[in-house]
Description:
Structural class: alpha+beta
Number of helices: 7
Largest sheet: 7 strands, mixed
Amino acid sequence: MADNILALSAVAEALKEFYLPGLRYQLNDKASAFLAQIERDSQSVVGKEIVMALRYGRVGGIGNRADDGDLPTPNARKTKQAKWETKNLFARFQITDKTMKASRSNVGAFASMLETEIKDCETDAKLDLSRQALGNGNGDLCVISAATHANGVLTLTVDTTMYLAEGMLVDIIDKSATPDAPLTNGAGLEIIFVDDENSQVKLTCATDISANIQAANDYLVVAGNLGLELTGLRAIAENDTLYGLDRANTYPWLKAQRINVNGEIADVVIQTAIDNADRKAGAQTNFLLCSYGVRRAYQNLLTATKTLANTLDLKGGWSAISYNGIPLVADKYVAPQKMYCLDLSDWKMYQMSDYEWMDQDGAMLSRVSGKAAYEATLEKYADLGCGRPKGVVELYGITEHS
């Protein structure tokens, strides 16, 4: 017993002192180039809520008058306070009791297995965080267009497989429900094969539910994530409601700008978007974010015009192509045919604190109920916020190059 308690104590100490700083760096700076550039803010989080001021309009009291005329009437710039709850981010891994006991005779083997578990958790957490940062907050991964079932396997034809991977647990969401709700039991179905070429995904599913799936309507989310993900870039560009505010009808000044390119990317297209961000919102674009195919299209444009592609070094060890001194970065989770023009000073990661191990019960490494295993959970309560959505410009319909 003493040996096992010592092992638990040593692992907990290693998680806190050795692994936590590295995990924080990886998740904050290495998950995506976009997230790495954003300021983190704990001061604007009150309790579990984020409070952010959205400023709009022009200052009154400015004008020209006659020598003996009345001075201009003061009229302060308008402010709408946005208030919404932080999102709950978790990364969890397990170690079996048998592995723990192996540390008595082979500490090196145990350390290696612990390192592997933490590294796998870190890698997958970075991928999911990067995806969420560019998502719409709802969590949808793809829309289902067809479903068949045979031999305990559910085969779905979907509009995209770019967010899917083997081993993921997903829920099938019924779009006709009010509000949207999982068709599955909430435990999720496991993806066993992603067929990118045919836009299909196969899942383990004992019961045939294919007849309940509505084609071109129902969709997939990460199991349990429906409506709980970060308020990402797609939410800023596309959602009718943002931070609990109805911008489709009540607050139209909160809408981002969208431009349909409907063709090849060009310097003048990008410059038009940058000019619109400045003219309509006073935003100074300092970051361009696009899909891989759009980046290739831009690289081909530089080659065709015999322009030297300069590169820029960014925070977190990332690099970018320079567009007139503005970094242009591609991300695997940006939807095809899109580019975003951003002023990063408008963005913050609002957080109650940085990543921490869940240990309020005094145990950083806890027994898993009903299993001969121990687990540790990394947590962060935060969300992305954009203080000037109108300064975001989405270019879409860009022809991609292979």
